[in-house]
Specification:
The protein is an alpha/beta fold. The protein has one domain. Helices cover 33% and strands 22% of the residues. The chain contains 8 helices and 11 strands. The strands form 4 sheets. Strands 6-5-4-7-8 form a 5-stranded parallel sheet, with helices on both faces. It is globular, with a radius of gyration of 17 Å. The protein starts with a helix and ends in a 5-residue tail after the last helix.
Length: 231
Amino acid sequence: MLVYGLKGLACNLRVIYTEPREYAPSKDEYEKYKGHLENAPTLPSYGVHQVVRTPGLASSVMLRHPSLVLAFASFNEQLIRALLSTISPNRLFLVNSEPPRFPWRADATQEIHRKLIEEYPDDNPFDAVGRLARKSSTLDYIETFELLADVYRRQCYYNRIVVAPTGSKMQALGVALFKICCPDVHIEYPTPESFFIEGYSSIEIHRIHHVLFTNFASQIHAAAHSYGLNG
């Protein structure tokens, strides 16, 4: 919401993200509880509080057309379930989240969403090694933006596109930039019932990431034109 609200900013914008050394749950914790994750004590979040809709991120364009939900895999599968129950979309495009330093987490989140993938098999193909073909880095916001732009160019004439930023913070940044470029896209966010705070991430810093947008409004407008979007 903050990034979208700054869409008219005609000066530099800096985004700084501190990447922790470790995240919860650990691989051992996931393996221990993966058959009954509801009992795991260190999942990033659990349950669903509500599905948030805000006027600034909403769109009524293509309202009478079939809905296509594009959401990101996480350790809380209930988030997407809640969204689907409120929208009842015709299609679900699931994006798997790939942490560069923890590849096992991509396998874990794919397994967590296995039943959803099976419910929408035609929309969620696999690559040659059995992973979801549609994926993006949890840190590279440009990769997320490019994936969304590709889906939009292929689907925007036939479907109402609803994006749920249920992945990482930097994936959410990519979604925000995409929304600026495509105001007809509708954003909805299912919020967790509760977050695991203590020990969610380590206090040790692995790396600090710095993104600089030179003349933010102008740069995003140029990106929309470059990617063939309608912003």
